[in-house]
Amino acid sequence: MRRRPPLLKASLSYLTGIITASIMMPSFNLLVVTATSSIIALTAIYYFHYCNQFASKELFSKRVLLATSVISFFLLAQLNLSLSGYHYKITKITSIPSGKIKYAELTIEEIWRKEKSQITVVAFYLKYNEKISLKINNFKDEVSIGDTIRGKIYVYPVKRDSSNMRYLRYLALNDIYSLGYLYNGSFTLHKLCSNHNKRLYKKLKTNFIAKIKELIKDEDRSSVIIALTTGFKGELKRETARSFSKSGSMHLMAVSGLHVGFIYLFLSSILFIFGNTKWIKLARCIIILGFIWSYALFTDLHSSIVRASLMISCLEISKISGRNSNSLNNLAFAFLLICIFNPLSFFEAGFKLSFIATLSIIIINPKIQRCFNSNIKIVKHIWKSISLSLSCQIGTLPLTIIYFGYIPVYFMVSNLLTIPLSAMVIISTALVIATEGSLFETVGLTLLNNSSGALIWIVKSIESLPYATIEIK
Q1: Hey, where are the domains in the chain?
Q2: What's this model's pTM, rounded to 2 decimal places?
């Protein structure tokens, strides 16, 4: 008999708690009392059910334990969201005065987009202890995270338009309530000192981006490589980003479980040749998890990367312990852990798309795969890729319509061609970095240039096809 995932009900209960708490604002004091009471009750019932040898193991006792655990997770989710300040964030009004400010000092915290004549960044305004979305017009100098801007700034509060509430909530959850504008000649840019005490992974990421731009002179190709390997889309041109989006390949630009999967399969294949003894298994697990979590830190712990890293960690630990791994249970565990530490992650588009895509692979993909069977390896591989792509698209279709407003028609063809190429880009990038200064670096650079060029050409060709998207108003 197949065992049911024990964490599935807990995660569904937690999910319901987050959704209901986001719609209404329950009393904080009442939540503290009820959540504490339910946890005490759950602990007592669990002890008497499993730890007390004289306790009743009847069905009624199990049902009481289940009901108490469901209620506890529901209330904990509501309490956790309340503690995160969700309702305060989405209703807060900016404290920065509107209009022209004669002198301002801001620190760049994030780069959102770089275009020919405009750069969009997230800057921190120390005087008001608040972030703003800052557009710098007619400025072509290099801007980096940590740089300081001093000069005249035009600031306006974010307009609360009912037609754009989703974007407003996105800004609010990132503590952004104002839009700022700077024009060339009205400010000075002070570069971050090279000896500034930055976090190790931030510094590695900055150095990596600079290295790729130095090696790959073509801006379009270098920006795609950077987006594929780090998730940083600030260098990506608007036209290129649109091509990936319209062709149904935009998920490649956001570091996700697919990227972690490439790394995991690559490492597993290499380390498998050393054998399968107990100590080799343990060493292999430590090496794989070390690489996976280092990559997660390198990409700023995006929700989709953390989700995939947690699921792979569960899989590897189950191999060491000799227990069977349940994908649905691992997904539920990842959902609970991420939402407990940061309940605001649930409101990110990437978080929802990642979890629903994975859920679709677990539930829908096996059913689609059974529809066709072949003994020919290449046909079997192609059908497996089609099945995975189709199951993901079916599962994420409602969210795709909500967030993007269109359906990519040629997503199947796009994914069949772009996924292998993106894997080649990631692997060849790793080869170039690992073999720097050797003869193999030239081979890696040639492979990287050709694979990234082919990837861009394919997505642009698919986007230009007639009826490439179906617009949903």
Answers
A1: 8-83, 93-190, 223-471
A2: 0.84
